[in-house]
Amino acid sequence: MSNDTLSDTVIGIDVSSKWLDIHVLPADKAERFANDPEGIASVVELSNELDVSLAVMESTGSYEMALAVELGLSDAPTAVVNPRQVRDFARAMGILAKTDTLDAKAIAQFAQRVRPEPRALPDHQARVLKAMVARRVQLIQMITMEKNRLRRALIPVHRRVTDHIAYIETELSDIDDDIARAIENSPIWRDKENLLRDVPGIGPVSSMTFIAALPELGTLSRQKIATLVGVAPMNRDSGSYRGKRSIWGGRSRVRRALYMAGMVAVRYNPTIKAFHDRLIEAGKPKKVAIIASMRKLLTMVNAMLRDGTRWGQPRFVTADQTQVTPSS
Fold first, then answer.
1. 3-state SS assignment for residue 274
2. Distance of alpha carbon 135 from alpha carbon 117, whole angstroms
3. Of these four, 150, 198, 210, 242, which has the most CB atoms within 10 Å of its CB?
4. pLDDT tens digits, residue range 192-211?
């Protein structure tokens, strides 16, 4: 890494529900702001004053979103990273103590040395769709919890729980309608959904999850998209030792949707079923065969969206009428 890169101004931001702890490098300066509109405006102003080359924060699921949006709108290069990456980096650097201030410094050091790639924020419409899909998951979880409670509920509360389940199911139906309208009103999303729903194994829930939570689908290589989702096997080798490769990290919500699609595909998708059966016949464990089938399905869908091909269409014609075979 060049000295110029280390001399660039970066900020690490530890985000909590109440506070934004900031650490600036190479100035080695720490500040704290409230995680509210005024505090966010102050962080953005500080970022502009320092002309930062990179602002990095961990993904918390929600608390960082407002700040990330405002930094993105101010054209500050911003990366929201997986917390595990920062924790692993901190341990490698010997940073074992944990406070909000130390976490912010570790994130700043991670930004300075690893230089995660800043990503453009999705537009407002995409953020709304992602939020609706996340809410849909929450509603399903609430229905499951209430049904579990219903089995143990005494008669006086049984009807209350039943009424609450009916209410949540109505909410779920309403949000499904909202998601369907959002996709239908976007030509790009509608085209994506049409391509995705053509694939045996991919249903409405899987397709809406891919559209909302994996906008990179169709824009990355098969290796990068598999790593992003968390289905790329990672080596565990050291010297002469060869450990078992395993998957970890990635976007858990997308991986869950891909798992469900993969389970259906190994039964009803001829291509994926044949691939899965070959692995089983070769002696591969069932879990390995399922994960490999998930990765195969993701790779094929990624190529389809990249090239604009439909399922079962082996070739497509480009604008100049050249015959092209899509690679996976």
1. helix
2. 28
3. 210
4. 899 999 999 999 999 999 99
